[in-house]
Amino acid sequence: MHEKFFKKVLALAIAITFFAVPYANSQDRGQRIVIKGSTTVLPITQKTSEEYMKQNKVTISIEGSGSGNGIKALLDSTCDIANSSREMKKEELEAAKLKGIAVKEIVLAYDMIVPVVHPSNPVKKLSLDQLKGIYNGTITNWKEVGGKDINIVVVSRDTSSGTYEIWHEKVLKKTDVSNRALLQASNGAVLSTVAVNPKSIGYIGFGYLNNSVKALKVNNIEGTIANGKSGKYPVSRKLFMYVNKSTLSKEADAFIKFMLSKKGQSLVKEEGFIPLK
User: Fold this and answer.
1) How far apart are CA 218 and CA 235, in angstroms?
2) Could you tell me the CATH superfamily of domain 3-110+239-270?
3) Would 3-110+239-270 and 111-230 be classified into the same CATH topology?
4) Does domain 111-230 have CATH number 3.40.190.10?
5) Is the Cβ–Cβ distance between 272 and 207 less than 8 Å?
6) Which contiguous run of DSSP H or E holds residue 192?
7) Under 8 Å between Cβ of 58 and 251
8) Does the pTM of the predicted model rise above 0.85?
9) Core-most of 56, 179, 187, 255, by most CB within 10 Å?
């Protein structure tokens, strides 16, 4: 399998301990940056932090546990930066206001959520309606969508995932995912599951695509950087970082500026995501 596949699966497996240090207190916080949240944004953060730490005397701790958990950490004041593959919800913003947290939203990059199947699957494209039927359980056999006469194994993200929430909104139209779906905690877990199961279908962030799976067109539109950036691809989204403006350290602020810089955005592109410019 592709080398990038193993690299990302390994990265996700050690995400909770990657650059692991305790959350810095107010006395030494300026020397450390704690980042928690989205597994979709995780590869970007790892790539940029590795480069940033080569040039700066700062330790960056990164945990990939889902967008919802990252935002919760921001509300609990246990991180400097919350990565998220979705916008903060109204109730999360209200909770932040009650706690006196001045939330600032930063758009880091663009992304697409791409349905993927095993490379042996003859299906090349699905409509949004077909995807909805597969994920809510009304379509259960690949022959119903032009494939072989075999049952479909549905692989989905868990509900703490920002990727799941976008899929739930744009594909499922807020209907329930089938109770037969296999729920996975990360993009890497979905990727590795689909890569070994010819019956399966899953969905992952564009940056995780490799030749261990086959990407499907959606509404006959291919998931490309151009189609994602223009919004033509039906399941496109922005990727975010959230911070507390009132307590943001100068080190965390400098790191964010690096991620948004020309160099930082080139690293975003290297990781397979869509840069802002």
Assistant:
1) 8
2) Periplasmic binding protein-like II (3.40.190.10)
3) yes
4) yes
5) yes
6) helix 187-195
7) yes
8) no
9) 187
Measured on CA atoms in the order 64, 68, 72, 77, is the torsion positive or negative? positive
Please give the Cα distance from 52 to 58 (Å, whole number): 9
> Which bin fits 67, alpha (ψ -120 to 50), beta or left (φ > 0)?
alpha
pLDDT at 2 over 50: no
Return the domain boundaries, the chain: 3-110+239-270, 111-230
pLDDT average, residue stretch 33-51 = 96
Which two three-digit tokens encode residue 63? Answer: 């945990």
Structural contact between residues 46 and 16, judged by C-beta atoms closer than 8 angstroms: no
Q: Measuring CA to CA, which residue among 152, 164, 172, 165 is closest to residue 190?
A: 164
Structure tokens at 272: 């397979």
Residue 47 dihedral angles phi and psi, to the nearest 5°? -60, -50
- Give CA–CA dist 103/77, Å, rounded: 12
Q: What CA–CA distances, in Å, run from 234 to 9, 108, 139, 157, 171?
A: 26, 20, 20, 19, 9
